[in-house]
Amino acid sequence: MHHKPKHSTQERPVDSTDAHAESHRWLLPVLLVAQLMVILDITAVNIALPHIAMDLKMSGSTISWTITSYSLIFGSLLLFGGRAADLLGRRRMFVTGLGVFTASSFASAMAGSAAMLFASRAGQGLGAAILSPAALSIITSAYQGSRRAKALSAWGAVGGAGAAVGVLVGGVLTQFTDWRTIFYVNLPVAAVLLFASLKVVPADTQKPRWRGLDLAGAALATTSLAAIVYGITQAHSAGWTSIQTHVCGIGGLAGLAAFAIYELHIDKPLLRVERIADRAVGGGLVLMLAVAGTIFGLFLLCSLYLQNVLGWGPLTTGLAFVPLALSAGIGSHAAGHAISKHGVRGPLAGSFAVAAVGMFLLSRVGAHGSYLTDVLPGMLVAGVALGVATVSVSMAILTGTRQEENGMISGLNSTGHEIGGTLGIAIFSTIAAGSGAILGPQAASGIGDAFLVAALVASLASVMALALLPRAQHFLAKLALNPQAMPVH
């Protein structure tokens, strides 16, 4: 009589455990594919810009908005997206962001004018700003200890290698089909992701908490960041010393200062500004600007050299980035092991120093250079180093966060990446165009100068990593702790 009930009570936990293990196994791949889709739509569009401009009859002064309209909304709304994930539910925000991104991708593919494309790309940026921090927040809450380090290493690999893969995908699709396919391909991928996410992403157990969303802080932060991003992206055409650039830059910085003061005086802030006093978080945020700017600059300058100087087509250029994708992936994989033994300060300082060597090698590109001798060696060296740096800086920012602030800190991490990338593109493209030529062999001089500045930035970041980040003993102790038990300081 007692055997059957006993047997049935044993069966349920086994089945439940098996189902949980199965869903947990697929959780990380689903989140990584979603993040890869977001990243691909940045770099894949870069390589298709000449074809987009010709089809939609864009002028040289407006074509940059194909990229800017995406990065402007994406970068300026990431903090809000991270906080929304904490308060409204991580899965809810992930699914919502996926839906907005997919609908905007369809609108981008159907765009019949430049204005419609810019608006649709802004919608993609909104969806990405909701989706990306929610996905990263799900990872940091679902994995602990060494498993979290491995998961974040995989996330870093997507960030480091995904951009290079995007260039390849963009080259292939543009060469053999049409630039609109870059957006159409998101639709079936998103449909699979939506179905899978409802199966494997843990359901939100709490009801949405709208009252703590801090809409005023979100508006202030978004407006301030948008002003800075707008000023930087338009500085090349308006002039770095123009009134427009100064008003946007100074106004944006003043807005961020007002945002920080406001956040310190409310009960449920969008961002706990005092968390930046933590050396791992604050130092990591500064170094995130450097690593993202360097990575974005590397892609931009290599693409300019291959297409504008050597005269390569979109497919050949895309294939040229495959070694960079592989090297960045190797660096990202190695970073998890290095961090678990040596913390983040040593790996970050070392990786920036090696990246500086790679950028210096690239600074020697000539008007009649060769991919194998002038580009590939520096690309491989910088790729491995920046793969390590991407994971290390994310680990610095994210390790030790409490459960209820995972979305907030994830949003801060992603904001640093996007704003840093925007800075990198604006600064390095300006230097590259300094010679007065952007096409033909004569453009090599300015591109080489930009690579040299990138080497100096990486060298400075290496020194800053030693000065700003915590020692290995302190960081490793924090890494070993349960994040739910971590005090906010």
Characterize the structure shown.
- This protein is mainly α and 489 residues long.
- The protein contains 17 helices and no strands.
- The radius of gyration is 22 Å and the shape is globular.
- It has helices at 3-56, 65-88, 90-109, 114-142, 145-176, 181-184, 186-200, 215-238, 243-264, 279-309, 314-320, 322-342, 345-362, 371-398, 406-432, 444-468, 472-480.
- Residues 4-19 and 482-489 have low confidence and may be disordered.
Task: Put the structure in a nutshell.
Helices cover 80% and strands 0% of the residues. The protein has 489 residues and is an all-alpha fold.
Topology:
Blueprint: H1 3-56, H2 65-88, H3 90-109, H4 114-142, H5 145-176, H6 181-184, H7 186-200, H8 215-238, H9 243-264, H10 279-309, H11 314-320, H12 322-342, H13 345-362, H14 371-398, H15 406-432, H16 444-468, H17 472-480
Helix pairs in contact: 1-2, 1-4, 1-5, 1-7, 2-3, 2-4, 2-8, 2-15, 3-4, 3-7, 4-5, 4-15, 5-11, 5-12, 5-14, 8-9, 8-15, 10-14, 10-15, 10-16, 12-14, 12-17, 13-14, 13-16, 15-16
Terminal Cα span: 57 Å
Ranges with pLDDT <50 over ≥5 residues? 4-19, 482-489
Q: Note the quaternary state here.
A: single chain
Question: Tally of extended strands?
Answer: 0
Structural class: mainly alpha
Radius of gyration: 22 Å
**Beta-strand percent range:** under 5%
Shape: globular
Percentage of residues in helical conformation: over 70%
- The total count of helices amounts to 17
Report the biggest beta sheet as strand number plus sense, adding barrel if it closes. none
- Overall average residue pLDDT: 81
Element string (H = helix, E = strand): HHHHHHHHHHHHHHHHH
